[in-house]
From TrEMBL:
<comment type="similarity">
    <text>Belongs to the binding-protein-dependent transport system permease family. CysTW subfamily.</text>
</comment>
<feature type="transmembrane region" description="Helical">
    <location>
        <begin position="115"/>
        <end position="140"/>
    </location>
</feature>
<keyword id="KW-0812">Transmembrane</keyword>
<feature type="transmembrane region" description="Helical">
    <location>
        <begin position="171"/>
        <end position="195"/>
    </location>
</feature>
<feature type="transmembrane region" description="Helical">
    <location>
        <begin position="243"/>
        <end position="261"/>
    </location>
</feature>
<keyword id="KW-1003">Cell membrane</keyword>
<feature type="transmembrane region" description="Helical">
    <location>
        <begin position="24"/>
        <end position="50"/>
    </location>
</feature>
<feature type="transmembrane region" description="Helical">
    <location>
        <begin position="146"/>
        <end position="164"/>
    </location>
</feature>
<protein>
    <recommendedName>
        <fullName>Phosphate transport system permease protein</fullName>
    </recommendedName>
</protein>
<comment type="function">
    <text>Part of the binding-protein-dependent transport system for phosphate; probably responsible for the translocation of the substrate across the membrane.</text>
</comment>
<feature type="transmembrane region" description="Helical">
    <location>
        <begin position="215"/>
        <end position="236"/>
    </location>
</feature>
<feature type="transmembrane region" description="Helical">
    <location>
        <begin position="74"/>
        <end position="103"/>
    </location>
</feature>
<feature type="domain" description="ABC transmembrane type-1">
    <location>
        <begin position="79"/>
        <end position="306"/>
    </location>
</feature>
<keyword id="KW-0813">Transport</keyword>
<dbReference type="InterPro" id="IPR011864">
    <property type="entry name" value="Phosphate_PstC"/>
</dbReference>
<keyword id="KW-0592">Phosphate transport</keyword>
<keyword id="KW-0472">Membrane</keyword>
Length: 320
């Protein structure tokens, strides 16, 4: 009677593949980079908190920056100006970025799309100082007649009311410059997300008789919703922290106002730090660092909200 041999018993537990030296080096480098980023973030937070303490302990009358007002009264107009200018820039840049990304990914011929994408990406390499000079010396004077027209025919709307600035250096001009600055990052991310739409989804929509635009509405935009939100939040973070362009364009007066065309404009935290830091001393430096801490918290909150939105929308995007 023939006997059959049992197969060799398998080792209990999981089978681990042999790790090559390159894999070990890459995983170690990635882990080290992640730890380093956390350490840098923690050190920045600790520095800002420690250096901000004198801003709250020294009496406001003795502080050369506060000049008798409380820190909250000093920083609130700056927070408003920072968020207001960034939101305006995002409102202007978002439809342009999405439209350009859709044109490059789904409408333009291959060669034209490559050239246009390259040109858009080049905008990210332009220094903020160059944007600031161009915005203050060229754009402001160019759009000032348009501001007069807006005030003449739409002055009944609160945003376009008030006395129009004679120089054009307004919060709307600063927002236009910021919109151009954040356009490359939004366009690049949206373009890559649009290109990752499953081919079968697009072909299925076209096979059902949809036009190209209907296919984009049914297949591309729902799939890319989370990516578009991420692009918008990254661009918003860039706009919140921009310094030199706003400093060189905006004519500030440190007030809270929603009027877009007047010479009375709110300032931003980065621009305020850049303007006052060279002459600051003692507790005044601590006040400026404290405003930087507020900006750090605002930026962190924006990114946290963006992450929450992306995670919430991921199950509806079709990417799972």
């Amino acid at each position: 009677m023939a006997t059959t041999t049992d197969p060799a018993p398998q080792t209990a537990g999981k089978i681990h593949a042999r790790r090559r030296p390159g894999d070990v080096a890459f995983s170690g480098t990635a882990l080290g980079a992640g730890i380093l980023i956390l350490l840098v973030l923690a050190s920045v937070t600790v520095f800002l908190v420690i250096e901000s303490i004198p801003a709250f302990t020294v009496p406001a009358d003795e502080n050369p920056i506060l000049k008798g007002v409380s820190f909250l009264e000093y920083v609130w107009p700056l927070v408003f100006g920072t968020i207001w200018s960034a939101l305006l820039a995002l409102l202007i840049a978002s439809p342009l970025a999405i439209g350009i990304a859709l044109f490059i990914s789904h409408y333009a011929p291959r060669k034209a799309a490559a050239v246009l994408g390259y040109i858009i990406d080049l905008l990210a390499a332009v220094s903020s100082v160059v944007f600031g000079l161009w915005g203050g010396l060229v754009l402001a004077g160019f759009v000032q007649p348009f501001y007069v027209w807006l005030n003449t025919y739409l002055g009944w709307f609160p945003l376009f009311g008030g006395q129009v600035s004679a120089t054009g250096r307004t919060i709307l001009t600063a927002a236009l410059v910021l919109a151009i600055m954040i356009l490359p990052i939004m366009t690049a991310i949206c373009r890559e997300v649009f290109l990752q739409t499953p081919q079968l989804h697009e072909e299925a929509a076209l096979a059902l008789g949809a036009t190209r635009w209907e296919m984009i509405k049914m297949a591309v935009l729902p799939f890319a919703r989370g990516g578009m939100v991420s692009a918008a939040m990254l661009a918003l973070g860039r706009a919140l922290g921009e310094t030199m362009a706003v400093t060189m364009v905006l004519s500030v007066s440190g007030v809270i106002t929603f009027e877009l065309l007047t010479a009375t404009n709110p300032s931003t935290i980065p621009a305020n730090i850049a303007l006052n830091f060279p002459e600051a001393y003692g507790a005044g430096i601590s006040v400026l660092i404290a405003t930087g801490l507020v900006l750090f918290v605002v930026t962190f909150a924006v990114n946290a909200v963006a992450r929450w939105i992306v995670n919430r929308r991921a199950e509806f995007s079709g990417a799972n």
